[in-house]
Amino acid sequence: MRAAVYHRIGPAREVMRIEDVDLPEPGPGEVRVRIHVSGVNPTDWKSRAGITPRPIARFQIPNQDGAGVIDAVGAGVDPARMGERVWVWFAAAGQPWGTAAEWSVLPAERAVPLPDRASMELGASLGVPAMTAHHCLFADGPIDGKIVLVAGGAGAVGHFAIELAKRAGATVIATVSSQEKAELAARAGADLVVNYTDAGAVDQVRALAQTVDRIIEVALGANLQLDLAVSGPETIIVTYAADGPDPVLPVRACMTANVTLRFMLLYGIPGPARRHAIRDITDAIQEGALTELPVHRFRLEDIAAAHEAVEGRALGKVIIELT
Are 262 and 236 in contact (CB under 8 A)? Predict the structure, then answer.
């Protein structure tokens, strides 16, 4: 099969190549998926670049997320899954078979049935972003009737956080940095969209709620001052990204707000939380509650450019089309 591979970490154009590799066969408890679309996330280029390095055996095919059709199953997997449309998560976690290839082999639970109403593009956009958004929202209980602030509401995690929060009965405030991003956040269903660069950003949030219940945070160092200004004893700030400088924690201000800080990395959350996310995401797809971001399409041969687009913070979702 044709696959994008790298044998060492480094810049995309220096280390990634398109190669012919042996078609993998599923082992016990595994399925093989004919990949139609591969999704590219920040975690993918960071692993390849060595920012979050992982061991490489013979080679590594990048990209955790994708969508396709199961065409082979290993021992212990129901043969009825053959021909099933699926969305794929953690394809490259602990193994070489990421989704930037014509086929991927992975544990059966990482290939989730994709409802017929959903496109392959949407399926490939879920995985890391939607599961991260879900855990940020629900790690501390239900959010029905709560006020949720989503920082970076136009990004992939922010987009799904808005949609999942609205589905769960929350009122959603999104913060963005441009009019184009504001339009995306509003389209996802945010009740209020605030440009956090505005001098009156805090007042705009407080016009809807003096304090918020959940803050889904993409840049704690940059946004902590705003976050604390709208926090109170019921507020939980959940941080899922580490881009930019680490914050200097104002302990007294945090104490005064009685705020709770939570940090999460999807790779380490408990199994029950992952299964909860998968159930809710699949139900939300079936209901039509999750939508696609604007899509940037690349061919497999352009894998380096796709990774560079995500590294350059392309607005929308970067995907690689395999079929």
Answer: yes
Q: Which of 252, 269, 249, 271 is nearest to 261 (CA)?
A: 249
CA distances in angstroms from 66 to 24, 173, 218, 259, listed in the order given: 17, 29, 23, 37
As a whole number of angstroms, the distance between CA 218 and CA 301 comes to 31
pLDDT along the chain (323 residues), means of 10: 97 97 97 98 96 89 98 98 98 97 98 96 98 98 98 97 98 97 98 96 96 97 96 96 90 95 96 97 97 97 98 97 94
CA neighbours closer than 13 Å in the CB half-sphere of residue 172? 27
N-terminal to C-terminal alpha carbon distance within the chain: 13
Work out the number of other CB atoms within 10 angstroms of the CB of residue 217: 25
| Domains detected in the chain | 2-126+291-321 (3.90.180.10), 129-267 (3.90.180.10)
Q: How far apart are CA 164 and CA 207, in angstroms?
A: 23
Q: Which amino acid is present at 106?
A: L
170/145 Cα distance (integer angstroms) = 5
Spatial distance between the Cα atoms of 86 and 114, rounded to a whole number of angstroms: 5
* Distance of alpha carbon 270 from alpha carbon 277, whole angstroms: 11
Long-range contacts of 249-255 (CB under 8 A, 24+ apart): 249/224, 250/224, 253/228, 254/228
258-293 pLDDT, tens digit each: 999 999 999 999 999 999 999 999 999 999 999 999
User: Tokens representing 197?
Assistant: 């660069």
Which two structure tokens, joined as six digits, stand for 294? Answer: 């604007």
Q: Compute, in degrees rounded to 10, the torsion defined by CA atoms 146, 227, 260, 187.
A: 40
Report the amino acid identity of residue 130.
A
Q: Which helix (H) or strand (E) holds 206?
A: helix 201-208
Q: What is the pLDDT of residues 1-38, one digit of tens each?
A: 999 999 999 999 999 999 999 999 999 999 999 999 99
